[in-house]
Description:
The structure is a single chain. The protein is an alpha+beta fold. It has helices spanning 2-25, 58-61, 88-95, 110-113, 163-166, 191-215, 225-233; strands at residues 34-37, 43-44, 50-51, 65-68, 124-128, 147-151, 155-160, 171-175. The strands form three sheets. The chain has a four-stranded antiparallel sheet with strand order 5-6-7-8, with helices on one face. Strands 1-4 form a two-stranded antiparallel sheet. The two termini are 30 Å apart. The model has no long low-confidence stretch (mean pLDDT 91).
Amino acid sequence: AIDRYDGEVLHNDRNFELLVAKLRALRILDDTLIVFVSDHGEEFLDHGWTGHGHSLYGELTHTVWVLWNPKLLPTPRRVRDPVQLIDVMPTVLELAGIRPEGVLQGLSAVPLTRGLPLSRKQPVMSSRFRYPNVRASGFVPENQTGTIARIDAQWKLISRDQAEAAGLPEVELYDRRTDPGESKNLAAQRPDIVNRQLAEIRQWIQAQQQIARHLGAAGKSTLDSKTLDRLRSLGYIGGAPKQ
């Protein structure tokens, strides 16, 4: 499985090389902001499972985000501060000199690219919702509970609202600096950190509820058969494409 995954990495790396070469041939490479980002990682039995989408451990939530442009970002820099996918848009807008309108949940990471600190009003969060129709005997225990992870430069707290039903710990606390593989749960040893970060998670949930009320009820739309077949071919919905 790891060899197959490495093959996919090589395939994408080669195609990315072709894209950059084409931009260079068109003489627009130095005027192009390249944003390379992944939405999730992949587990190879790190916590006893394979694939992705079934937990919020680091092998799935710690992903790549690369920004490149010799004019906008002249100094190469590796940033260790945690960021979120919702930070991508405000970051790109600021680098492009565009002032965003309305309310944004994300925060521009441009200061980090320049070696400056980034002040957040809310911590970095990752969430995974409970499957509403999951069976108690389902294959993936995490499907029986909602899970939220709070992440900062040192600590990562994982909280589950239906932990007992899933047969999983209610809280897990990991020191990201000394335990990047998230193998030693320190929740019992550091209740002070657990309680403080659980309070932040509750505040974050309340903020998400306010946003949901502001947006209103979800609407409905009908997708055409071509779009549905395309989504099936990518594995996002079940069933086989029509022949």
